[in-house]
Each structure stands twice: as structure tokens, then as C-alpha cells.
């Protein structure tokens, strides 16, 4: 009997629990929405663009008029006494003894141009000079000028004279010195000085 009471009590308890009215929940209303475009973060106001700064012009490099600079010296040398007409002359590359970088190729070319058709000298060609440099073990671009090298090169190409030139002092207005030397003895038979012309 106790068991049946216990069962009926449990049943009663279960019925009481189930007898509670459970409210049926209605689903939350769903409202359709329009898709929105993603908003970008607010940008700060545009800064005014400063006017471009003008770049200062670099200082113009002072160029040297090599033709005008060497012409008077060459003319003076050709007129000097003691030069035998028809002699072979080696024009050595001008030596840079200035305080800066100098266009020695242009200066040497200007000396060669001034001596073209001079009537007294025939010039050693660049090909002959490069071959002579190879014979002495020098590169064609060798810029270590010295009187002894110039005389050694002149002997290889069978020149009777060598013209040794030097630019010294301030690179903007170098002083020019030219010396005409006898290859056989190394004696300086003519010397001239001038200033490079802008």
C-alpha cells in the first residue's frame, strides 16, 4: 500500500508539474532590412598642399676654352728657333697638377688640333702612342705623366721631340706650362707659360 501511495504521490506531483500552463512563446518578429553599404571611417579634412619648393640651380661649372688657351703657346713654340722642319713630335697627355679634376683629354686634343697642319712637325698618331704604351707595359689610359715616360714613349715611336704639358694651381683657372724637349738628350729647347681661358 505504501508503494502505491508513493506511486500515486509521484504521479500527482508529475501531474501538478505538467498541469502548469506553459505559455507558448511566439517567435520574435523579423523585420526585413535593406542591405547597407559599409561606411568608411570619417576622414580628417584634407590638409592644404604647400606650394612646391623651387630647387636651387646648381652652380654652373666653369668650362675652359682649351683651344683658345693652348693656341698662343703652340704658335710661340712652332716659331721658336732650333726646331727642324719635318720632325716627328710626340704630344704627351697634359698632366693635371691642379687642386681638382681636369678634362685632360680635351686639353690634350686641343694641343693636337693646334699643331695640325703646323708645317714644322708631324705628330705621332694615337694608335702609335697606344702601341708604344703597351711596349712599356702601360695602359692606354695611363695618366701618371712624367718627363721620363714621355721621352721613353717618344724613343719607341722614333720621335725627335716631345711636348710635355702641365696644368697647375686652381682648377677653375689653371696655369699652363709647356716644354718642348729633345728626345735624344732630354734637353728642354723651348718653354712657355700661359693661363687657361674660360
TrEMBL record:
One of its GO terms (molecular function) is enzyme regulator activity. It is found in: Cell outer membrane. Residues 27-59 are annotated as: Disordered. It is a lipid-anchor. Residues 41-59 have a biased composition (Pro residues). The keyword Membrane applies. Gene3D superfamilies: ABC-type transport auxiliary lipoprotein component. Residues 1-23 form the signal peptide. Its main location: membrane. One of its GO terms (cellular component) is periplasmic side of cell outer membrane. Residues 27-40 have a biased composition (Low complexity). The keyword Cytoplasm does not apply. One of its GO terms (biological process) is regulation of cell shape. Keywords: Cell outer membrane, Cell shape, Lipoprotein, Membrane, Palmitate, Peptidoglycan synthesis, Signal. Pfam families: LpoB. InterPro entries: LpoB. Belongs to the LpoB family. Interacts with PBP1b. Regulator of peptidoglycan synthesis that is essential for the function of penicillin-binding protein 1B (PBP1b). This is Penicillin-binding protein activator LpoB. It comes from Pantoea dispersa.
Amino acid at each position: 500500500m505504501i508503494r502505491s501511495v508513493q506511486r500515486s504521490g509521484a504521479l500527482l506531483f508529475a501531474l501538478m508539474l505538467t498541469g502548469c500552463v506553459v505559455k507558448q512563446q511566439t517567435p520574435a518578429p523579423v523585420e526585413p532590412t535593406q542591405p547597407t553599404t559599409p561606411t568608411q571611417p570619417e576622414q580628417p579634412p584634407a590638409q592644404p598642399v604647400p606650394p612646391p619648393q623651387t630647387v636651387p640651380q646648381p652652380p654652373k661649372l666653369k668650362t675652359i676654352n682649351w683651344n683658345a688657351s693652348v693656341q698662343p703657346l703652340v704658335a710661340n713654340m712652332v716659331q721658336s728657333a732650333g726646331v727642324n722642319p719635318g720632325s716627328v713630335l710626340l704630344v704627351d697627355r697634359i698632366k693635371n697638377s691642379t687642386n681638382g679634376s681636369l678634362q685632360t683629354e680635351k686639353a690634350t686634343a686641343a694641343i693636337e688640333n693646334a699643331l695640325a697642319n703646323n708645317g714644322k712637325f708631324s705628330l705621332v698618331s694615337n694608335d702609335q702612342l697606344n702601341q708604344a704604351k703597351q711596349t712599356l707595359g702601360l695602359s692606354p689610359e695611363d695618366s701618371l705623366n712624367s718627363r721620363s715616360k714621355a721621352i721613353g714613349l717618344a724613343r719607341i715611336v722614333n720621335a725627335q721631340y716631345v711636348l710635355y704639358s702641365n696644368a697647375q694651381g686652381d682648377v677653375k683657372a689653371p696655369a699652363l706650362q709647356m716644354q718642348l724637349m729633345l728626345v735624344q738628350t732630354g734637353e728642354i729647347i723651348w718653354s712657355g707659360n700661359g693661363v687657361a681661358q674660360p
